[in-house]
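Readers of this paper often ask what the protein records in our data store actually look like. The remainder of this section carries one protein's record, kept here as part of the documentation.

:::
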Amino acid sequence: MDTKRKVHLLALGLNHESAPIRIREQAAVTTDLLGDALRELTTKNAVEEATILSTCNRTEIYCHQQSDTSEQIITWLCNFHGLSQADISPYLYRYPDAQAVRHAFRVAAGLDSMVLGEPQILGQMKEAFAIAHKTGVTGKILNRLFQQTFTVAKRVRTDTAIGTSAVSVAYAAVSLAKQIFSDLSQQTVLMIGAGETIELTARHLKENGVKHLIVANRTLERARNLAQLYQAEAISLDELPARLSDGDIVISSTASTLPILGKGAVESALKKRRHRPMFMVDLAVPRDIEPEVAELNDVFLYTVDDLRGVIEENLQARKAAAEEAEQIIDVHTEEFMGWLHSLNAVPTIKALRQSMDRIVEAELQRAYKKLQSGEDANAVVQQLANSLSKKFTHSPTEQLTRSDSDGTLSEAVRRLFKLES
């Protein structure tokens, strides 16, 4: 039996801080390829368990291995994507054991994200682990790691304010809408534009229960592409005057150099709505909505500048919450590593118990024979106790006498058996 068996964890990858987008794109593993990638990684590279997390901002491999196989994993990653090591190695980071655990906890809690405290990464980690588990490439170590990771992330969300404050204009716009409308699922949202900000806004709206989304864009094909992602309706800007009245919430972010919505168009929409209020957010610079629209009754108009003050204040609040989160993560990292290290002792504990059981069984058989032959029971019990004591201490005593020149064994024995100094 190998009593020196070690447990090794490794997190290896790159993210938005370590690598530019052109490298991240080349290293990404799409969802449809994850199963094949995981099977190949664990079959050929001395990796016992693995999970691959791949998003637009990071590609990370979490694995359990018996020795450092990081070079093999890098070679595999390069071969899988047809990359050269010279191209990718400068951007990679490697976190062993406790560092890997802490990194997983920080990623899930949103502390390693481009937007501090963003919640999407936790869902992405859950999906990555679910695929790895279904593929059959996780086991005792990674199952425990990821379950603990999700628990830690939940505690960080519950016990700190890391996720309560908006720190992007898209998220701030949706948060503001939630304050004005108690139930977003009952509102129709009209989004003007089809760029990154509008896409992020659409994602936040869907996550907050919005059912009816309309995407208006100058290029109808781009509007349709975005609409397809979020089960939305796509219209062209030419249709906007006729459809503006549908929007309880209007969020605009285009690259237009001139306003898209004027006071007259919004007045007409309000008449069709019988003056039901409209919440409008202009995230564009230059503005998409004429400033005079704010003068209208039943219109709540906010610009990107109105949101920036809120965002900066909230970012400071998130940074303070992040410090609390780091403390929670430190505690749980130590706890997980304690469990991990305990696994190293399992074979030794098992062997010790088996050895003791053999000694006890042999001495009991001798005692039974003496009792059957009529010897005094008290004397037999006393002999049994004495014999067990000598047998249990014989090997440790012999090793201490022969091999403890520097006192290391003596100190270990004192700690094991809680002996007085």
Q: What stands out?
A: The chain is about 55% helix and 15% strand.
